[in-house]
Amino acid sequence: MTANRLAESLLALSQQEELADLPKDYLLSESEDEGDNDGERKHQKLLEAISSLDGKNRRKLAERSEASLKVSEFNVSSEGSGEKLVLADLLEPVKTSSSLATVKKQLSRVKSKKTVELPLNKEEIERARTPLEQEIFNLLHKNKQPVTDPLLTPVEKASLRAMSLEEAKMRRAELQRARALQSYYEAKARREKKIKSKKYHKVVKKGKAKKALKEFEQLRKVNPAAALEELEKIEKARMMERMSLKHQNSGKWAKSKAIMAKYDLEARQAMQEQLSKNKELTQKLQVASESEEEEGGTEDVEELLVPDVVNEVQMNADGPNPWMLRSCTSDTKEAATQEDPEQLPELEAHGVSESEGEERPMAEEEILLREFEERRSLRKRSELSQDAEPAGSQETIDSGSQEVLSELRVLSQKLKENHQSRKQKASSEGTIPQVQREEPAPEEEEPLLLQRPERVQTLEELEELGKEECFQNKELPRPVLEEQQSERTPNNRPDAPKEKKKKEQMIDLQNLLTTQSPSVKSLAVPTIEELEDEEERNHRQMIKEAFAGDDVIRDFLKEKREAVEASKPKDVDLTLPGWGEWGGVGLKPSAKKRRRFLIKAPEGPPRKDKNLPNVIINEKRNIHAAAHQVQVLPYPFTHHWQFERTIQTPIGSTWNTQRAFQKLTTPKVVTKPGHIINPIKAEDVGYRSSSRSDLSVIQRNPKRITTRHKKQLKKCSVD
Amino acid sequence: MQWPPPWRRSPLVSATPPPGPTTGLLCPRRVSEAGDSSTEGARTGHSHYVTPAESAMERRSQPFPSLRPASPTNAPAHGRGSDCTAKEPPLANVCRQNYGAAQDPVEPAGRRSASHVTGSSLGKAEVACGRRWRWAELVANSSWSPAGRATEMKVKMLSRNPDNYVRETKLDLQRVPRNYDPALHPFEVPREYVRALNATKLERVFAKPFLASLDGHRDGVNCLAKHPENLATVLSGACDGEVRIWNLTQRNCIRTIQAHEGFVRGICTRFCGTSFFTVGDDKTVKQWKMDGPGCGDEEEPLHTILGKTVYTGIDHHWKEAVFATCGQQVDIWDEQRTNPICSMTWGFDSISSVKFNPIETFLLGSCASDRNIVLYDMRQATPLKKVILDMRTNTICWNPMEAFIFTAANEDYNLYTFDMRALDTPVMVHMDHVSAVLDVDYSPTGKEFVSASFDKSIRIFPVDKSRSREVYHTKRMQHVICVKWTSDSKYIMCGSDEMNIRLWKANASEKLGVLTSREKAAKDYNQKLKEKFQHYPHIKRIARHRHLPKSIYSQIQEQRIMKEARRRKEVNRIKHSKPGSVPIVSEKKKHVVAVVK
């Protein structure tokens, strides 16, 4: 850098010298030419000195940007001679030879021949016939536009001619500087490219993204059309991302990470990151809405409810009830049609004193802005972006709409804050009732919230809750709501940390699920929400019909409570009644004694589903036991309880009397060692026999012919 | 942290004093606090080491002061033993008491109970006897003490009622003081599962089926026969015409006969065991005496029948003096005649084997190389019926416990068990071999059979299973030509190409020799457990594991692929043709071509 600065100053110095030397006359004479040459030489020297300053004595290729008489042996230029070179000269050998004579003749013949002229080529242009043509011609001539030869206009030629020597030199110096800068820049880029640190690159990328974002914002304010284009580009990128398999955890790297993820927290995080990146990239952006498009826009938002099958890898674990989804999406269309007319009056009522025509673009901008906010919130979920954003918004405060915008921004930011600290949401007072009712989600992924079991909605407050969640995620266009909210909570913004502290305390989940919600709807819930309400009501109606008569949630909660109770370690009571005191019917050991002999069970580790109100995680289940369990019902059994019964009956002598044990364990066939077993005889099995002569084989249950076999035999006998 | 805490587990144990001296050589003995108070050191907790003899001496010198109950009335639970307390326990008892004398029924009960009152063994006895003993707290008056103090102290002692464990007469059952309350014996299933698992593992550990190899033949062993009366005697015929008689207990050859020119094709013993018959490539049937000739005499057959054609097999009737041979036709001979009683043919192919039914003794079965299995009744002049299979059957064998069942060893690697009354479908198709099955023999119990195959292995199949339960092979055993299950169902013999007869255990992990009753009970129990838990994956995996030679293994894989391909093709054919036009044929029926009567 310093070298660069030095070079620049030196250059400037030399130029000043030259300027002093040079006379005012711009016509080039011999002497002046020489003087110039002199200056040129000086400059050259200077440059060399500078280049020698730089350690490497690199020879740069001379470039000709302007006329110079200096001819280097390394780069030949035809400058010095001043003669015109013609083709014939080049063709001519140094010594004339007869063999080339014919070629020369041919060439000359070709030259002499005139090219065929197109009939319409010249006259038409030169001669203007119609009045229109004449007019145009006049116009062109007035501006001295070149009609035939479109190289340079006379004005340009004049300006060229008028360019003084100093100017030329300045220009040259500029060029040189630019070149130097470029080389520096290139070197820098090369150097940076070589840096291996991933973190560095990440930081750089992030910085760039931030910058781009800022620029975009600027652009949006200055030139909305260009911003739109930019937005389209983003949309296109999203499309590309959706098409590609990038960030889908399907690559080689991702697979290796997936293997490691089980053991390595970092790998897991990396995977998550990738997935979240994918989500972020594939997040549908709301297109800036024309009046008809608005419907589509809202629909898109609704579509987000449906998890993308391709991308939603971890979402599929317990997918949302398809039934509910269907109803949701179907209802939106009707709702959206009503949305528009209702929204506009609201805007008007709000006293933004502007015409209808102006309001539309403003809404557009709002939407844009909101989108943008959303995107940013997605990107910077982890980092604190609170300070940067208001700064951006403060720049343009000129119109009423802008004020609205800034307010909106702040609000959205607040929402984002909530979003960040979702896990430690506090059930604070009635300042932000909607926020209160939010539910802590296990992970940071937004679609997780969509995954909540919908049956929760059968309860009023949970419905509210679900709605709130939806809003949080969808960030529906609802400027009015936000404004209202902002009016209601004007003092919320300054003491944000305090608010956060309030949120720090946990929500009592049981309360959350069961308690009645305060009816804040009338105040806080804006018109859109009411609309939502309507569709929701239909929805709810449907659900109610479906689950008529069973209180699913209460049942579930009860079940969970029981499960929790059952899993708790029990206290051990070791009191022996009648030991050391009187005992008998109706007498109970004293409380003191009981207290003494009661062993408190140690507090177990916290349950995994402690913070998941709608989940019961069975912690007793041992996956290692599965290897020791029968998966398929074995052949002779027709029902699992038959099999279980055979297993549950112990046959050992630990559980059976000796006699029973012997009976149970006698083999089906008992053979005596050393005895010859003769083939069976009719007397052995039939009733005719009085006693078996050979007792070497005792068969306990002789094989019976199966019914199938019997049938077969019958059939054969019929034949 | 331990849960539940250790002192919670048995309140009884916690109440016991520290254990006294055992029968060890040197053991710390704490002089009981209730005992002699003369030694100050003992009182303060010092302990000195004494040998058992010493301690006995000590005890003898002391009059068992505090440990003796003051009067019989003070010990209501003491029972019969109270009158003996005055006696001093003999020296022998002092030592025995520590072992828990309850096990000895001969010892008088009273003395036993008295001996248990000694302080040294107190803790031990308590722990060992558990809840069978009852505590009796005695109040002893120690007026004897030198200090002259009248102190009352509680003495814990054990006593029990002999009525609870002594038989009234010798013929009565032993009373077993045993509580079968299931609450006291928890985790039945897991415990039995573990036992089953261990039994399965042990079975595999002890699976060493190979017993002996009988060598002596100078050519491949072609046929085997069992002695009907003697378990130890086995006869074998080789491909060089030599017949050898073996003693299995001594594992040696006891007699060698050059019986035929060329192969000995078949050998069978007479039902009485006095003589045996052989047929050979030299078109003769020879009858030999089972006992060898006298010293210096020539080996001469009893009878020789010269036939017109080569005989390929022979079998003797199970009850009468009749035998059957096969070759071009099935001939039934009277032993006394040189011409067959009757000859039966059906078709013109050579018959490879003929077998008498051991139960319905007039029935015969034969298999011919034109893929037939033909059944005959000796009392009729014509064959009964035949079944034609896909490929030729090498041998058949009748089930000795079920009259109508026989199994055929087929060239198509399978064995088919037929009911002779319904030949159109085999009762069971047994498949596991990877080459032609050459011989089959039933276990005398009729529950299993063994098959010898060209794939150099023998397999044991349960009759009602299509897969084998066991495979035997050794590195040196070549193509197995003949196999026999011994008459006590304990052993299997197989004769193979490489001139050896091998003796195997029928049950690979069975312990040989006499078993004690406890061993037998354990064996039975383990067997039952294995049976009970056989479907559990872990146990199944261990029980099923067998080592196979590479060649057989790879062939199995190959054939699995082929089979799968065939199945797939069939499925596709059914799928792509008009429904019903391609009949679905079961595996059993597939191999039966026709039944002819």
Draw up the topology in text.
The complex is a heterodimer of chains A (719) and B (597).
Chain A: H1 2-21, H2 30-53, H3 87-91, H4 101-112, H5 123-126, H6 131-142, H7 154-162, H8 165-194, H9 198-222, H10 224-243, H11 252-261, H12 265-282, H13 293-305, H14 322-349, H15 356-379, H16 388-394, H17 400-420, H18 433-436, H19 447-450, H20 460-474, H21 479-488, H22 496-504, H23 509-514, H24 521-524, H25 527-546, H26 552-567, E1 572-573, H27 591-597, E2 598-599, H28 640-648, H29 658-665, E3 669-671, H30 682-685, E4 697-699, H31 707-718
Helix pairs in contact in A: 1-2, 1-8, 9-10, 11-12, 13-14, 14-25, 15-17, 16-17, 17-21
Chain B: H1 6-9, H2 11-15, E1 27-29, H3 40-43, E2 48-50, H4 52-61, H5 91-96, H6 109-115, H7 122-129, E3 134-141, E4 152-159, H8 188-205, E5 210-215, E6 221-226, E7 233-238, E8 242-247, E9 252-258, E10 264-269, E11 275-280, E12 284-289, E13 303-306, E14 313-316, E15 322-326, E16 330-334, E17 340-344, E18 351-356, E19 363-368, E20 372-377, E21 383-389, E22 393-398, E23 405-410, E24 414-419, E25 428-431, E26 437-442, E27 448-453, E28 458-462, E29 470-472, E30 480-485, E31 491-496, E32 500-505, H9 517-532, H10 537-544, H11 550-575, H12 587-590, E33 592-596
Antiparallel strand pairs in B: 1-2, 3-4, 5-32, 6-7, 7-8, 8-9, 10-11, 11-12, 12-13, 14-15, 15-16, 16-17, 18-19, 19-20, 20-21, 21-33, 22-23, 23-24, 24-25, 26-27, 27-28, 28-29, 30-31, 31-32
3D structure, described in words:
Chain B: Pathway: Protein modification; protein ubiquitination. Chain B: Keywords: Nucleus, Repeat, Ribonucleoprotein, Ribosome biogenesis, rRNA processing, Ubl conjugation pathway, WD repeat. Chain B: Pfam families: Sof1, WD40. Chain B: This is DDB1- and CUL4-associated factor 13. Chain B: One of its GO terms (molecular function) is ubiquitin-like ligase-substrate adaptor activity. Chain A: One of its GO terms (cellular component) is small-subunit processome. The complex is a heterodimer of chains A (about 725) and B (about 600). Chain A is mostly helical. Chain A has a domain at about 140-220. Chain A has 31 helices and 4 strands. In chain A, the strands form 2 sheets. A two-stranded antiparallel sheet of chain A has the order 1-2. In chain A, strands 3-4 form a two-stranded antiparallel sheet. Chain A starts with a helix and ends with a helix. With about 600 residues, chain B is an alpha+beta fold. Among the domains of chain B are: about 185-205 and about 515-570, no CATH class; about 210-510, YVTN repeat-like/Quinoprotein amine dehydrogenase (Methylamine Dehydrogenase, Chain H, 7 Propeller), CATH 2.130.10. Chain B has 12 helices and 33 strands. The longest helix of chain B is centred in the C-terminal third of the chain and has 26 residues, at about 550-575. Chain B starts with 5 loop residues before the first helix and ends with a strand. Mean pLDDT of chain B is about 80; it is low at about 10-135 and about 135-150. Chains A and B meet through helix 28, helix 29 and helix 31 of A and helix 8 and helix 9 of B.
